[in-house]
Amino acid sequence: MTCEFTMHTAHWAFQTPDGVRHTADDGATDGEAVEWTWEVTRFHIHAQATFGVILTSDGDYHRYGVTNYDAIAAFVYEVLPPLS
After folding, report:
1. For the purposes of burial, counting CB atoms within 10 Å of the CB of 29, is it exposed (0-12), middle (13-18) or buried (19 or more)?
2. In whole angstroms, what is the distance from residue 22 CA to residue 16 CA?
3. Is-contact 39 47, C-beta < 8 A?
4. Taking Cα atoms as reference points, which of 52, 51, 70, 50 lies closest to residue 60?
5. What one-character DSSP code corresponds to residue 82?
6. Distance in angstroms (rounded) separating the CA atoms of residues 41 and 10
7. Which of 32, 35, 38, 61, CA to CA, is 20 to 30 A from 81?
8. At 44, phi and psi to the nearest 5?
9. Which pairing describes strands 10-15 and 21-23: parallel, antiparallel, or unpaired?
10. What is the SS3 assignment for 75?
11. pTM exceeds cut of 0.70
12. In the chain, what are the helix, strand and coil shares in percent, each to the nearest 5?
């Protein structure tokens, strides 16, 4: 019996509460260290605004199938409208 292990490259993205998924292809980041700034707009106002960090591999199969990702960390915030 022979086992073959193939290394895959991991890719990251983040998804804002309005459902927009941002990736390194957006040109916003480069390298291993990443700093994100989330500029909240009126589309992000929500009692449970979810901000997700999504990891995928370049492999043919993914842990969560048709969603095309392998891991996710979700952060939920209460984003209130401005007071004025």
Report:
1. middle
2. 8
3. no
4. 70
5. P
6. 29
7. 35
8. -95, -5
9. antiparallel
10. strand
11. no
12. 10, 35, 55
Q: Which helix (H) or strand (E) holds 23?
A: strand 21-23
CA distance 14 to 39: 13
**Is the CA virtual torsion 60, 5, 9, 15 positive or negative?**
positive
DSSP assignment of 46-74 equals: EEEEEEEEEEEESSS--TTGGG--SEEEE
- Residue of 27 and 14 predicted with greater confidence: 14
Please state, in angstroms and rounded to a whole number, the distance separating the CA atoms of residues 84 and 80.
12
The single residue listed with the structure tokens 């990702």 is 69
Q: What is the mean pLDDT of residues 17-27?
A: 76
DSSP state of 16: -
Average pLDDT of the residues of the chain: 77
Instruction: Report the pLDDT averaged over residues 18-45.
Output: 73
Residue 52, beta-bridge partner list = 15, 74
